[in-house]
Design brief:
It is a single chain. Helices cover 51% and strands 8% of the residues. It is mostly helical.
Length: 261
Amino acid sequence: RSMYCNFNINILLIIILYNIIQINCKKEEKTYPIQKFDLPYIACDVCEKSLNEFYNLISVLRLNSPYKKLDEIVIVETLDQLCNPKNSTYGKWIRRSDIIEEKVNKGGSVLKVILHDNIAKCEEECVTVAKSCELLYEEEISDRDELSSILWKNKLSIDQIQTKFCVKDTGRCKANKPKYLPSKYNRIDYPFNEMSEKDIQMEELMEQMKGAGLGDGLSMYGRDDLDGMMGSGGLDDHGYGDQEDYYSDNHEDSNRNNFEF
């Protein structure tokens, strides 16, 4: 009976959202500019961190696979989404990225990409890391199939993989040669706007609704819109809203300069 009620609630929610979509104009999606000047100064960090993330993702997938073996197509599909911050599984690391400026002895300042424990909204620095990642795997690495094959064979350590692709293949990293910022460059440091649990739940709801066949129409809704529909209880682990509130009321590119998120 409980599962039946939950199913009906979910169907009703989809119908309500669908009907609201039909009578509202789509809100303008905000775009954030890529910080082009930052790209060469974060290139090494993005290469090392993205490969580390890729390596860890494949390790987990392999561990959970029958006989600890992965089909190579799984590795290719993971790589295809590694630079996509909208992908909550494989591109999530980008949403945790923060670009900071760091003083290095007397040599000047460098840019570092650090990873926070939690995710943020994908704004200026997030789309910049995503662009650097995209350039790396789509234009700079000479043979993506070789990278996938190396991960599939599982013979090299992460350090060996990073040396091969970040130092030898692409030249993004140079031993003991940090890429210093120009002394006169006055860089803007954008804040890392960490998302609340409620924001994350709302984003997950939007993805669930898209998966139910409502398409991109839900992108017009923000946290406040969906929060109002769901009641103050938010979502449970299965994506349902607060059932007590429900009953008491009788009822988430081709343009290289900007990313939409």
